[in-house]
Amino acid sequence: MRERFVETTTALLAEDPRTALVLADISADAFAPAAYRHPDRVLNVGIREQLLLGVTGGLALTGLRPIAHSYAPFLIERAYEQIKLDLDHQGVGAVLVSIGASYDRAESGRTHLSPADVSLIDTLHGWTVHVPGHPDEVPALLRDAVAGDGSAYLRLSTLRNARPYGGDGALRVLRDAGPGAPLLVAVGPVLDAALAAVGDLGVTVAYTHRPRPFDTAGLRALAGDTVVLVEPYLAGTSTRVVSAALADRPHRLLALGVGRGELRRYGSAEDHTRWHGLGAAGLRRSVTGFLDAAPVPAGR
């Protein structure tokens, strides 16, 4: 995904003089050719993430369409106040593109883990969040975000599904178990594991790479009384959205994702997937346990 981001951004800088790129050393080597060709629109502020967002806001105020890029914990967590003030408070938009996701660089320790990034963006108003599940989904999502004028967050990962799924982010049914069946919604790169987990169960599986704005109309059309939400970041991040969309009907909701407890082990991304129960086996245990624990009808 990172390579597709570099390729697409380099092309956008050449095609559209409104596009700008702000870096904080991360990926600077990959963008060196673009910086040579467009020195006024490719800026590297060094390891100063708050300045990264301050410059991004300033460029947006001049009428440019800036892309700000770094690792997720540096871009979102470390510079959150600047996102809130230098973008939102000033009423300007930008495109934030992260790498590292929740635990892609787990071997680098806690400084490089960021499962709460989407939750932080969710405290702001009107943001679009894209969580692609395959590298081939990245170019169209990035181009659409840059072509707009609002604020967008594109969350890239080393984890991926076997194939891309296009579309605008509306829920896409990949396995239909029929009317009234439990619905599992998978976001981004957890799709393949989710499909494997429920392969022999009567569960409908829908996919999205755009958790914000969440496709609530699609959710209402597909959901019966049981919904399972699988997200590759902090568990429960989209619970409020799903619950609000289904507030007028009885439903049960299981929200799966990265746990809140800190794992004081480095390991690999694959280890963390297993430890958080986001592999096929872990999801299978969680989903079957939830389905088997269906509530007893009233009066029995």
TrEMBL record:
GO molecular function: magnesium ion binding
InterPro entries reported for this sequence: PDH/Transketolase (IPR051157), THDP-binding (IPR029061), Transketo_C/PFOR_II (IPR009014), Transketolase-like_Pyr-bd (IPR005475)
SUPFAM superfamilies registered for this protein in UniProt: Thiamin diphosphate-binding fold (THDP-binding), TK C-terminal domain-like
Pfam families: Transket_pyr
Superkingdom, natural source: Bacteria
Segments forming domain Transketolase-like pyrimidine-binding: 1-164
Cited PANTHER family: PYRUVATE DEHYDROGENASE E1 COMPONENT
Protein name: Transketolase
Species the sequence originates in: Micromonospora echinofusca
Organism phylogeny: Bacteria, Bacillati, Actinomycetota, Actinomycetes, Micromonosporales
